[in-house]
Write a structure and sequence with these properties.
Elements: H1 2-25, H2 28-31, E1 33-37, E2 41-48, H3 61-85, H4 89-112, E3 115-121, H5 134-149
Helix pairs in contact: 1-4, 3-4, 4-5
């Protein structure tokens, strides 16, 4: 589980460092919008109180704590499953991505009460109203990897 742990720590550090740099350092929480490579890539402040794309969003403390508990439960379950599986490199990397991303978003909910989303990518003349963060990318990639690499034999 060394590879999973290193992946988790790298994602968690990258996610939190980038969030603090953008949200606090560039003051995106007050400016709300910064053009980086218009119109394709911009920083757009979005406080996500729900899950992906703001689903199940609510400003209630109950929802916040339920989402924290759910993220911690799923992270723990994935970690134990991958550990019992005697996972190979790619399954460990996938678990580290998913758990590192989930913990990054848990930290946001604990500190700010919501997840800090700010990456906005637009293409082909269609304005994308959604923002995301590094943790979201890691969660998606990790979940995809767990599906693809589950059941694969451990590295020799």
């Amino acid at each position: 589980m060394r590879i999973a742990t290193l992946t988790l720590l790298a994602i968690l550090a990258l996610d939190q460092a980038l969030k603090w740099f953008v949200v606090v350092g560039l003051n995106l929480r007050d400016v709300l919008y910064i053009e980086v490579l218009p119109p394709w890539f911009n920083l757009t402040m979005a406080w996500n109180q729900g899950v992906n794309f703001g689903l199940f969003a609510s400003d209630s403390a109950t929802t916040r704590w339920v989402l924290i508990a759910l993220a911690l439960f799923i992270s723990g379950w994935v970690w134990l499953w991958v550990r019992r599986e005697g996972a190979g490199t790619m399954l460990q990397v996938s678990a580290g991505l998913l758990v590192g991303g989930a913990l990054g978003n848990v930290i946001d909910r604990l500190i700010w009460g919501a997840v800090a989303d700010f990456l906005n990518v637009t293409c082909c003349g269609i304005r994308n109203p959604f923002a995301f963060n590094v943790a979201d990318i890691a969660i998606f990639a990790g979940a995809f990897g767990l599906i693809v690499f589950a059941g694969a034999k451990k590295d020799p």
